[in-house]
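Structure ticket #2291
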Amino acid sequence: MRLFFLAGHAKVLCMTNDTNDKKPDNEEGKIIDFSQAAKARRLKDAQEKLWQKEYQHKKTSSQHDDTTFTSKIKTLLPGNDGGTPHRPSGTSTDTDNEPMINLPLSIQIMLALMIGIHLLLNYGLPPVTQNWVLVHFSFIPAAWTGHLAAPLWTYPVSLFSFNFLHGSWLHLIMNSVMFLAFGAGVDRMIGAKRMLILFFSASIVAALAHLCVHPDMPYPLIGASGGLSGLFGAILYIYHKRGLMGHGRYGIWPIVAFWVLISVLFGFMGSPDGEGTVAWVAHIGGFIAGMLLVKPVVRLKI
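Resolution: structure written out below.
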């Protein structure tokens, strides 16, 4: 994504005997009262049992919640068990009949749109029209805060359309590769509809995060990397819940910190091709949104 210029008592009776097994004349027995100590002990035991019961309930609820999410993921995966897709009996398993690159249809459509729009914008339209498209279909923070005038229809449209605009071929190629890696993976895990909902939701959060940090910026925000960062965050969360990220002391947090650091560094270094700057806030916003939204999106009944 870039900025493109343009209770009770207890008693114990203890009997004492002398060496001749005779009772003392003035004493039939001694009574030692342990009621206070026993009461405190019972109270402590009751508190511990109550705490253990509450802790076990919370732990069971948390495990049930995670198990439900993981089971939902496995159900959505091919074969319903996260393994090899189920084949009816008598069906050939010859892999030679399968294409070398088996991309989900949703990814093919998204890539075709991104590439087709880039070709049309750069080679099929005059410069004046190119600028008009860039201004009206990109996300411009200053237009949202009233510093720039824009038609009303551009506000809802630009929340989605800016994902399909790219500043250069390198920008487009990088995002296409990310879509092949993250988009195809999430599509196979949770399905095409959920993947698209998650992608566009993360991209909207990415744009709004950029708006909050740069409310007066007049430069267009373009590119799909905010939503793609969300898909990467979703993959990390799913892998973590399925136990595929190991059981280290810090879990997935080192990877999260590394992603944030890389995003910030690219923001200060600029894009590799020199065409604008990198909107690092949008990358981080989309990444966090993907991690937070994947659970409710998976539970959608669609």
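Closing remark: Residues 35-77 form one domain.
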